[in-house]
Amino acid sequence: MKERMRKAVNDVASYGTQYIRAQTDCTDPNLTGIKAAIEVRDELKDNITIQVVAFPQNGMYSFEEDGKTGRDLVEEALKLGADCVGGIPHNEWSPEDGAESVKEIVRLAIKYDKLIDVHCDETDDAEARYLEQLNAEAMKQGYGPYTTASHTCSFSSADDAYAFRMMGLFRQSGLNFVSCPTENLFLQGRQDTYPKRRGLTRVKEFVDNDINVAFGQDSIVDLWYPAGSGNLMNILDNGLHATQLMREQDFPRNFDLITYNGAQLMRIEDEYGLDEGKPANFIVVDAPTVFEAQRRRSDCLASVRHGEYLFKKALPKYETELDVTRKTK
Q: Catalytic residue among 75, 92, 104, 122, which?
């Protein structure tokens, strides 16, 4: 398992990523994946920052094996050193269990002083309300800035009046969001004929309302998304098209969706960025401006960590016999 994790980390790092939040299944009485992820995190910490999420893939209450529930295993994973409390309330057997799992996620996070990252309403059900419950629980505890709702696909299908009300509550709580463009486009809307829903949450509206939202990739070669590579420039490209973030005011800030916004929800602002006094961690992109980088889907030429190269590439060279002055009939 550690070998596969290292391969995934190397794939992601080869595109310039230096910070990873790893959703790691803990619905295994032996916690094999959690133990492996924590070891990989600690072994690679000088080159890559990894946050391990104790993620109960099969549910906190809908899973039980060897006398341990998913909830018990989440707590054990936190005691072992996992960085975040995960959850998947829409995967529980009943709305009541889903709501209880949301409350327990927040309780455990506060008890162990951990961040929260929940697979929340990753469904096309327009009536799903676990996002509202997560926001309410986080807001009661003043924990919104430390809480991330990932996917929230159903929020794109929700009634506009309801969504308008929730936008105000999100601003009040400081809740963070992660949208996974390639996975959400691939997985959602499968029961639709036409019109077919896009599956992405209301990213454009979050941006316009100063609600922190980041793009990510949820899968690196698994059954939910076999084509995952960890190339965040590809994720950004897909996301900008799917969420229609191509207004004049969007291009200068679009890169925040795969950089600063993710750093904010990971709570690594003290070590992240190009300000004087921070670690010399940065990448070099083959483009003269942020607009050209987006238009040309530019490659990452170098990744620098603590002032040392993780990798560097030569500038690309091209040869062509095309005569651009020649006219054709």
A: 122
